[in-house]
Amino acid sequence: MLMNFVMGLSMMAVCLLLQGFLVIAALRYFARRQDQVRSAFFSAMRVTVGLMFILIVGNVCQLVAWALLFYALGEFDTLGLGIYHSAVNFATLGYGDIVMSARYQLLGPLQALNGAMMIGVTTAALSRAFAEALKDRPFVTH
User: How many CB atoms are closer than 10 A to CB 118?
Assistant: First the structure.
């Protein structure tokens, strides 16, 4: 059980580093396009979609990293099955159609916790971009 915590917390640290790098990259992408963000609404949304894409790629990379861990531990016969299970855990869906062995089952909830936190970081960065893109735009005229 202790080894599960060590593996899970180590993977969470790797995911946090990855997410941190990608949030910085995404915000730099957004900052370099401030002139487009301040111009037409659709230009601002195009830049925001680009930011969202970078952040989503980061989340997908994290769930693949977890899947690689599960696969390396011998939990799944194929990497594809590991990726599916990892995506369900990371998104906190909890389908339960595929479960890990009792030996490593604690890794599932740890990944779900990690996914909830990292999706929260993604949401915060995207919310910041939306706020910036929508700033000073008159939506209601009187």
Answer: 23
